Amino acid sequence: MKHGYFFDMDGVIYNSMPHHAQVWEETMQRHHLHFTAQDCYRNEGRTGFDVIHEVILRDEHREASHEEIARIYAEKTNAFLAMGHPAPIPDIQDVLHYLKNQGHVIWIVTGSGQDSLFETLNKDFPNIFARERMITAYDVTHGKPNPEPYLKAWERSGLQKEDCCVIENAPLGIRAAKAAGLFTIGVNTGVLTRDDLQQAGADIVLDNMEQLLTAIRESRF
Ligand code: MG
Fold this sequence. Notes:
The protein is α/β, with parallel strands linked by helices. It is 46% helix and 11% strand.
């Protein structure tokens, strides 16, 4: 039976969250704003613009202009790129190859808007992903935690909802997937607690990709 597996990217495919957390904290500090690595994990999935807007409102009680937000976000993005290409999450290769070999359909559903995302993914994971099976920042009006990204992936997949499964690492991503009515597995690859993912509504919470592969092999979903 063919199933659709919808993978988030940051913290699920790539171990990019430590890089994001470090550069967010450093960039905000330079602007005398308070935003810790922990805050970064809690807000994962929100757009950078929304995050900066909210932190300035909270810390300085004012509405930041679009230009100011764009300037800070560009700083953060440049610092992130300077850290180099993040490594894949341990054992994610095995998960992806197993699903591919079983004939399942693999999607990427990410809030990322990198221009060369498909090329990068295809280089690191040859023949796993396809351009037409990706939902990125360019495909949606509202990002996670809005259900739109996952609803779009599901609609385009042509599959029944009960045959789809979302793999997420972040509370807001889990909320988006559950709001879209999809079965959701939280894999806790970051610094949050299992409870954080459970409370966001995950149907199952696992600790790593090795556990995910075992669970898929045993056909628990
Ligand atoms: Mg993520």
